[in-house]
Amino acid sequence: MFIHYMMLSLLLPIMGWAIPPMIQQGPMLQFVDPNVCNEGVAEDVCPDGSFIVEASDSCGIAFWNRSISSDGNPWVLGQVIPLPNCNIQSIALAKGNCSTVVVGCTYGSDNSGFVLVLDNLIGSGGWTQTAQLTYPNCPSPNAYCLLGLAVGIDDPRQTIMATIPEYQLQKGGVLIYHAEGIGSWTTPVLLQATDYVSPAAQQGRTAVLSRNGQVVIWGAQFDANNNGSIWYSHYTAPLWSLPSPRYSPPDLGPTVRDPIYGAIPPQFGSAITTTYNGSIVAVSSYTEVYVYAHTSFFTGRVRTFQIDTSAGVGVGITYLQNLPLPSDMYLASGGGNRNQFGQAMTISSYGTVLAIAAEEATNTGLAGVWRYAGMPFAQVGTAIFGNPEDSNSNFGCTITFGNATNLMSVTACYSDGGVSGTGATYVFTNA
Q: Which of 34, 95, 210, 212 has an alpha carbon 20 to 30 Å from 402's alpha carbon atom?
């Protein structure tokens, strides 16, 4: 894994992100053999910016600690934890005290999948595995539940979310585990909507748990002929509510036919991010068509919504905004066909700053930041593009805020960094 450190200068009168004329970039760091594993598939950041945890697909996880080293690089490799028989697809950090990490091992040894819980216990000398979570209804080698394709954990470390999108012949669903103590978690509660359109909707292909552990929102981008759907449930102790009615925005773009890729539907629910209490949600449809200069491009779109759980299940989703696409995405790519805008997203705790990535834009990928300040979200500064000399690097595989949005981590999971195809992480600070 490579860690690239970049300092971004402030070019606007309000706090924002932009590319300065000169970029300070630290040395590249690598924690596994690049010929064995692909890194940058998942990452998360402690809110105080003290460390980043990132994952390779099959060589475990590593912790990068923020500490000025002798060569001036602010990120130093800490503990590396090999995780045999764990094909990692997701990772989540309990951000209350940053002492618990949840890892989704989607395939595992029997293709059912499992979830690992690692704790940094006082006096333990480092991170230690304390639990392995499974689902008893996914025991067969032929039951491709994909347990852990998306995972989440709340700040107080009381609730873990893990998805099973291929459960019951791809009907899918979301599992909720509650803590009973260190190393002990309850039998999971299954959240599964019944008003899906497509039998193989794959509920839980994407999902997010609010940091207060009270709201879970999940998507099924393949539901309704791949137009996509979302649902939510909220927690009032000791029960989770029934799933809300299926929701899809009224202005969702049409399915179009591409001469190379065939039918391209919007896939609403491709990625989801939410605020601390789950009240503001951003949802992408990363292959949705957008008409630009009288030409259709399946660039992807991102919409924001408000969820009011006090209003009762079924009437709590309010459509807020269909975000404008970054104009520089078109200028750089001559139209930006197949950008997958919204492939990855992250939103600040109070919903005022939203970062969005498009990993296939301009063949290198891009990321941008949008701000809400008493008006609809608007892009701040210009987009951040992947290395132009590192084509097909998929810059924007994942994106995460830390240190109250003063730090942003973006992975390029196929970047070679000029050395190999092992993947890279770029860390930006808002100076």
A: 34
Return the closest-CA partner of residue 324 out of 267, 383, 278.
383
Q: Is 12's pLDDT higher than 50?
A: no
Q: Which domain holds residue 301?
A: 2-430
For the residues 216-223, what does the mean pLDDT come to? Answer: 95
What is residue 39's predicted lDDT score, i.e. its pLDDT? 77
Q: Give yes or no for a contact between 208 and 216, defined as CB atoms under 8 angstroms apart.
A: yes
Number of domains comprising the chain? 1
Residue 256's Cα: distance from chain center in Å?
A: 27
Average pLDDT over residues 115-130: 89
Query: In whole angstroms, what is the distance from residue 302 CA to residue 320 CA?
Result: 11
For 84-99, write each residue's pLDDT tens digit.
888 899 999 999 999 9
Long-range contacts of 317-322, Cβ-Cβ distance < 8 Å, separation of 24 or more: 317/232, 317/244, 317/247, 319/249, 319/250, 320/280, 320/376, 321/376, 321/377, 322/249, 322/251
